[in-house]
Write a structure and sequence with these properties.
single chain, 608 residues
Length: 608
């Protein structure tokens, strides 16, 4: 140095990391001076992408990322080892090593076999319908244990930076780093707890249960559907244009009747409706032990914002948002005796000796309906599958209950849909409850036409795996649909009707369908109106684009706080679709000043 004294550089340079064992042994045989090897750790996910969104992954720099890896990072990481290198007089190098302390291990509630069934069924649906996103959750309804949770697109935790979305093949290499990071973060995020959407008809059983609980309706009460209801001078249609006629409560669920739901919520009133929405867990997190959960609380009408029209449309699951896990957990309370459970994916934390150091047991957050009401609705929902809109989930010999959901989103002329199906089995004492969701399929599919077959495939495998015996109860209602259609079906005139409405009716009649063309309005059909055909026959529907309704100019909300931005979008009669929690709007698509059809979606990204 400047004083003429001898100094030593005690730093070292890393030549290579994560080297194979054979290479390590070869280096050791050389006995190179000044070269040494350090033990390192490698997280190995044996089943590659299986349950990747539940597991998350480990980053060398930041530790656990997403999933239980992040949620339980402090338990898992342990204490790293240390190596101290000193140079003493005479150039004698001393190395002192402090051994690492192992972290704890997790026991999850995920059943590997059921998870496999869920992912296979999901992949089959993805290959058939080519959606933007898709997801499946399987839960034990009485405990809140998550038995399977999957989403598409997915990733391999061993190589999380490698994209597995086949739609991006050929495009990935041309993207800049910012684009890649944005896409990867969207893939790593758990769709089942971080994405919000309008639940549609899967919400209807919750409304019926609430109304029964408060004695607003009775199980044997009758409702009449003419095909529409006038609310504050606005005509709001049922999906079946010609109406369902007189129906029991059970039939309103099987037929998925919007008019009956509007009649029920009108009797209930906005204050009671909002109270039950909150009681069933909407607008708040489920508190599952996974990171990144959204509450969607700003996408729920307050009592002040529930005008007559908003109250009516909310009754059948529109104009408010939920996460997939929220709607499944609320639905589970309808059938499990009335308890809102706290969902969880980790049941135990154990040390290296196998000793349990922490255990998570089922937690009842609150009771929302009585056992009697729960038993009533649970039994009624069997008719949805046996003879209603959920026919495509029937499994011979098993009693299955459930509810379909179909919700249009985005610009109406783009005809983008989220279709879903919730089912449970067996009806007597449900062992599992399942939600399947298909988001923005390339071609139009109705909820029972896409999500219900996915659930059926999953249930068939899972019921056999769990050794649940068939109940041998017939899965049909004496050869009739719940609407009273006989074995021979007289075809109606479906021209100029909404494709969604037509396919819903065909499914309740036990008819298959094939769509020819692109659009949302039926312009022709085969067989023609008046033809007599047998159940399970196929209809051909010819479609075209619908004429645009009213349009509006999208307001600019960039830079505005979350709640203010959402309210502005709603005031413009548009639907806000939000990514992120509290904070400021940093991204808006379509941008402000763009013309869009009334009721279209505006995508917002919110950052702190």
């Amino acid at each position: 140095n400047s004083e003429g004294k001898l100094t030593y550089d005690t730093s070292y340079k890393v030549i290579s990391e994560k080297i194979p064992r054979k290479k390590k042994e070869a280096i050791e045989e050389l006995s190179l001076k000044g070269v040494w090897l350090e033990d390192d750790s490698l997280r190995n996910y044996l089943h590659n992408s299986l349950a990747s969104h539940v597991l998350g992954f480990v980053s060398a720099d930041a530790g656990g990322q997403w999933g239980v890896e992040r949620q339980y990072n402090e338990w898992l990481k342990g204490v790293p080892g240390r190596i101290f290198v000193t140079v003493e007089q005479g150039n004698h190098v001393l190395r002192q090593q402090i051994s690492p302390q192992s972290g704890f291990s997790l026991v999850t509630t995920i059943d590997e076999t059921i998870q496999h069934f869920a992912e296979v069924a999901l992949q089959n649906a993805v290959e058939k319908h080519k959606p933007k996103n898709a997801s499946v959750i399987v839960m034990q309804p009485y405990t809140g244990e998550i038995l399977a949770m999957a989403a598409y697109p997915t990733f391999d935790p061993n190589i999380p930076g490698k994209i597995m979305d086949h739609s991006l093949k050929g495009k990935w290499d041309a993207m800049d780093q910012d684009e890649k990071v944005k896409i990867l973060n969207a893939v790593w995020r758990n769709y089942n707890i971080s994405h919000t959407y309008e639940p549609g008809s899967t919400f209807k059983p919750i409304l019926v249960a609430a109304a029964l609980e408060d004695n607003i309706i009775t199980p044997d009460q009758k409702f009449y559907c003419s095909g529409h209801k006038i609310v504050a001078d606005r005509r709001i249609r049922c999906w079946k244009r010609t109406g369902h006629g007189e129906q029991t409560v059970e039939q309103t669920l099987a037929n998925s009747c919007n008019v009956a739901m509007m009649d029920i919520v009108e009797k209930m009133g906005k204050d009671s409706f909002y109270r039950y929405q909150k009681a069933f867990g909407f607008g708040e997190k489920t508190y599952i032990d996974l990171p990144g959960e959204e509450s969607a609380y700003t996408l729920l009408h307050t009592p002040k914002g529930l005008g007559p029209v908003e109250l009516a449309t909310s009754s059948f699951g529109q104009t408010f948002n939920v996460t997939p896990l929220q709607i499944l957990n609320g639905f589970a309370a309808v059938i499990n005796g009335g308890n809102i459970m706290k969902p969880y994916v980790v049941s135990q934390i154990i040390d290296q000796n196998g000793t349990v150091v922490k255990e998570q047991n089922p937690v009842v957050l609150r009771r929302v309906i009585s056992q009697e009401v729960s038993d009533t609705v649970r039994e009624q929902l069997e008719s949805v599958v046996s003879g209603g809109t959920g026919r495509r989930a029937r499994i011979e010999g098993y009693r299955i209950g459930g509810k379909t959901g179909t919700a249009q989103q985005g610009k109406r002329e783009d005809e983008l849909y989220v279709v879903s199906f919730i089912a449970y089995a067996p009806v007597e004492v449900p062992k599992i409850i399942v939600l399947a969701l298909i988001d923005e399929s390339e071609e139009y599919v109705e909820g029972s036409g896409a999500a219900a077959p996915l659930v059926k495939e999953l249930l068939e495998n899972t019921l056999h795996y769990l050794e649940i015996e068939p109940t041998n109860k017939t899965t049909t209602l004496e050869g009739q649909s719940i609407t009273g259609q006989k074995k021979e079906i007289i075809i109606s005139d479906y021209t100029n009707m909404s494709l969604m409405d037509v396919t819903m009716e065909l499914i309740t009649l036990d008819l298959k369908y094939k769509v020819v063309g692109s659009g949302s309005v039926v312009i022709n059909q085969m067989p023609k109106a008046g033809a007599i055909i047998a159940p399970n026959s196929e209809m051909i529907l010819y479609v075209t684009k619908s004429e645009k309704g009213g349009e509006t100019m999208i307001p600019t909300v960039l830079g505005k706080p979350y709640e203010e931005a959402v309210e502005i979008i709603k005031q413009a009669q548009l639907v806000p679709v939000v990514q992120g929690g509290e904070g400021i709007v940093s991204f808006q698509e379509p941008p402000g000043g763009t013309s869009i059809e009334l009721g279209g979606s505006v995508h917002l990204k919110v950052e702190k």
